[in-house]
């Protein structure tokens, strides 16, 4: 699979995953916002109510049917004097009393809606009793004293929509609410299962990972296959969108994780540094460091005689790289030192006492100093490059290392060095902790992001 096709495929899968997440969010939030769909998007309710096992509540449905019958009866010329008016009003009063006592909104967890309904009617009738409000409202005496059309319009606009939003959910054989979203979700679960296992198998065949390791490394994609806790799918969807670059989530992720990352990074870095310094103190105090450097019986990695190798490398670096670079300054120093030494030497004082050469020419002293400085430099260089000189250097190195090890094995010396090093590390630790508390971790994160953006 070439790069262009792989990019297209990953974006397509990310888009399908996003659609699936939108469906999941819609399903999870449907009951909470069903009233909005009912009032403004009736087709959505008509399509999705059967999936959630929702039906109009039989009590409120019957109540609204009786209200419709009453409205139809008032369209005749007789109005409130019609023969059917009194039985219908009586039926509405009885149904209202039953509705107040039984609260049909309770099963749908819409008690707040029922409370709003009662409050509106109580305010309309200027009473604190809902029963009295319904009893008065559905009476011929009240309606005959008021404008019937206005009262019915109030009920239609303010009370009826609340009654219509009430519903009843069917139960299945297990006593749980009917929810057929799985019939939609199952196809997407199968699709993502095939994609997940196929992709991890392809990764396993084209890498050193086993199929199980490939599955484990992409564990978050397994959340797309779980039919419960569907909200967790936001994790694999966000990862897919970010990896496929379907949308640029970098800025969003930066803002979301800014403060947590700053806090955690500060704690982690503080822990790591203090832990490292504590371990360094421990190996210094218990003599582990001294044994490692001085004892030949310790377990070694690579070449055993590392100290001699390091010394040899330093000498070689000094002779071949450093000294040629500082040759003028080194010769000046040797010349100055030798000139001073010659003037202070007994030979020079004796020569000055000889008649005729009381004042030895200054140029002669400088020429002799130049010669000796150049000779000393050449001797140092030639001694290391010469085979015999190299042997002498090696003997000096070995003797130096052996003598240093012997002197360092002295308990008093070791104890003094260990105390000094331990105190030095303790100072580093205290200063680091103090500085880390004073520095704003968010400023560090901002600096890190700036450096990343620059590159």
Identify low-pLDDT runs.
none
Q: Write the element-wise H/E pattern from the N-terminal end onward.
A: HHEHHHHHHEHHHHHHHHHHHH
Rounded mean pLDDT is 78
- The backbone outline, from C-alpha atoms, is elongated
Strand order of the largest sheet: 1-2
| Overall domain count | 3
Total beta-strand segments: 2
Computed CA radius of gyration, to the nearest angstrom: 47 Å
Largest sheet: 2 strands, antiparallel
Structural class: mainly alpha
Beta strand %: under 5%
From the N-terminal CA to the C-terminal CA, the straight-line distance is 30 Å
Q: What share of the residues lie within helices? A: over 70%
Please, how many helices?
Answer: 20
How would you explain this protein's 3D organization?
With 455 residues, the chain is an all-alpha fold. The chain has 3 domains: 3-28 and 180-247; 54-169; 292-448, no CATH class. The protein has 20 helices and 2 strands. Helix 3 (58-73) packs antiparallel against helix 4 (85-102). The two termini are 30 Å apart.
List keywords for this structure.
455 residues; mainly alpha; 3 domains; two-stranded antiparallel sheet; 20 helices
List the helices and strands and how they pair.
Elements: H1 3-40, H2 42-48, E1 54-56, H3 58-73, H4 85-102, H5 111-125, H6 130-137, H7 140-145, H8 148-165, E2 167-169, H9 181-205, H10 211-217, H11 234-244, H12 250-285, H13 288-294, H14 306-325, H15 327-344, H16 346-353, H17 362-385, H18 387-408, H19 411-438, H20 441-454
Antiparallel strand pairs: 1-2
Helix pairs in contact: 1-2, 1-9, 1-11, 3-4, 3-8, 4-6, 5-6, 5-8, 9-10, 12-19, 12-20, 14-18, 15-17, 17-18
């Amino acid at each position: 699979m070439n790069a262009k096709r792989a990019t297209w495929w990953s974006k397509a899968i990310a888009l399908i995953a996003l659609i699936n997440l939108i469906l999941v969010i819609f399903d999870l939030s449907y009951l909470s916002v069903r009233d909005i769909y009912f009032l403004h998007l009736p087709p959505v309710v008509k399509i999705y109510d059967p999936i959630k096992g929702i039906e109009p509540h039989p009590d409120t449905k019957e109540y609204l049917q009786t209200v419709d019958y009453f409205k139809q009866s008032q369209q005749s010329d007789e109005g409130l004097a019609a023969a059917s008016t009194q039985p219908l009003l009586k039926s509405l009063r009885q149904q209202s009393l039953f509705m107040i006592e039984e609260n049909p909104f309770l099963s749908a967890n819409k008690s707040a809606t029922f409370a709003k309904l009662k409050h509106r009617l109580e305010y309309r009738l200027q009473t604190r009793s809902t029963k009295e409000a319904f009893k008065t409202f559905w009476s011929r005496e009240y309606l005959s004293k008021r404008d019937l059309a206005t009262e019915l319009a109030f009920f239609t606009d303010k009370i009826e929509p609340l009654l219509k939003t009430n519903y009843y959910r069917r139960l299945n054989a297990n006593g749980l609410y009917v929810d057929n979203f799985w019939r939609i979700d199952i196809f997407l679960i199968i699709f993502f299962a095939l994609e997940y296992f196929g992709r991890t198998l392809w990764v396993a065949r084209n890498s050193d990972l086993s199929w199980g390791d490939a599955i484990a490394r992409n564990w978050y994609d397994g959340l797309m296959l779980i039919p419960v806790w569907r909200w967790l799918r936001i994790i694999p969807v966000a990862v897919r969108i970010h990896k496929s670059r379907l949308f640029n989530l970098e800025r969003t992720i930066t803002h979301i994780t800014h403060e947590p990352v700053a806090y955690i990074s500060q704690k982690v870095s503080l822990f790591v540094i203090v832990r490292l310094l504590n371990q360094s103190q421990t190996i210094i105090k218990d003599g582990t460091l001294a044994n490692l450097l001085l004892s030949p019986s310790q377990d070694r990695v690579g070449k055993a005689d590392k100290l001699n190798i390091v010394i040899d490398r330093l000498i070689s670096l000094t002779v071949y790289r450093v000294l040629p670079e500082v040759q003028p300054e080194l010769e000046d120093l040797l010349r100055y030192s030798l000139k001073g030494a010659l003037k202070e030497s007994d030979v020079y004082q004796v020569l000055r006492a000889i008649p005729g050469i009381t004042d030895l020419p200054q140029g002669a002293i400088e020429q002799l100093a130049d010669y000796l400085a150049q000779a000393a430099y050449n001797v140092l260089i030639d001694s290391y490059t010469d085979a015999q000189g190299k042997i002498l250097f090696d003997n000096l190195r070995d003797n130096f290392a052996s003598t240093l090890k012997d002197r360092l094995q002295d308990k008093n010396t070791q104890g003094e060095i260990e105390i000094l090093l331990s105190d030095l590390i303790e100072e580093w630790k205290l200063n680091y902790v103090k500085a880390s508390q004073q520095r704003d971790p968010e400023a560090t994160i901002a600096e890190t992001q700036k450096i990343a953006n620059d590159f």
